[in-house]
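Q: What structure does this chain adopt?
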Amino acid sequence: MPRTPVRPVRRALAALAGGLLLVAGAAPALAASARGGAPQHHHHHRACPAAARGIAACHVLVSDDAVPHVLTAGQAPAGYGPADLQAAYGMPAAGNAPGPTVAVVDAYDLPSAESDLATYRAQFGLPSCTSADGCLTKVGQTGTAALPPANAAWGQEIALDLQMVSAACPNCRILLVEANSGSIPNLGAAVNTAVRLGAAAVSNSYGTAETTADTGYDTSYYNHPGVVLTAASGDNGYGVQYPAASPGVTAVGGTTLTRDGSARGFSETAWSGAGSGCSAYEPKPAWQSGIPCSTRGVADVAAVADPRTGVAVYDSTPAGGQSGWQVFGGTSAASPLIAALYVQAGSPATAGNPAAYSYAHPGSLNDVTAGANGTCSPASLCTAGPGWDGPTGLGTPKAWLDGSGAAQAAGRPRTVAFTRTP
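A:
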């Protein structure tokens, strides 16, 4: 059975505040490097309000600190840009040939998605990715041109997802599938559409409380052998959400990513907001045999999520009184980054389930050993340490991988080894 947590005081306070505003410490001056280095943020809000059980909320967090929403000549956006993320996670230089298709599934429509993506890619010198050149495709839940209504809050999630896929895999094709609403059946149907249309990976940056219906949803929507499905673990600290708990997805936790003087140039700690723990209903996969849960454990891997060390995003649609260049965080940022990395890394010998990939190749990950997202028993479910832990799983990407799971230097040729089941 899942372990019973000892709920931390800060989670109670966060719940009291409705999760709408988190404040952390005294705010130093906001700064960004010429490459778009991470600013120091201490105020942020959730783009999507909490939803009813069975209805997912997007997980994007938006910084409320002052950032240059409109850039002057030569000015860099605040937040980490593609070059920073590529350096931090050993991503390769972009090739010229079109890459695999990475899909992002979100609810509702962002009418400016294509133009916002064009602004982001142009700012950071990435190749064009438009509907005209065949790189970007946007469809509704069933794969047709009929789109759902626009929603500014979910629109911020869409902008983040598309731009993080671009940062991690500049030559990947991108498929945006927009669900009719945030219900799991609608979002799940959009996942099925993404796979049917040829996506090698599908990122899901949303979540809701677990229910007894989840195991049925696993079979209907989140079971696609040979296709990478990633899901954000959540931004509420210790606790498990769905679909991150599904054994068919790679559950992506979060870190605080900080520049330092190491050979890597960065260090990471577990982010206090990352979701983690043992599922209430999902069975334990065989590939998680070494973790301290009797059920499915969350997370599997992680990437940057702390909005204090967040990523640069361009969204021209006013939401929460802000538009233009902004700094976003949440495990919403980590999920599309991991999805885009995994489609090119390859997933050998995992019985058709890419979620098992990190467990077969733990040496390809940076082991995060500090930080926590709450208080629990056993402590590894909420406190980072050697090996697997709840907030960061087995760690964050360390180097490019070839199809056999061997590490390669960034920019070298790579082999794609995923197998697809029609």
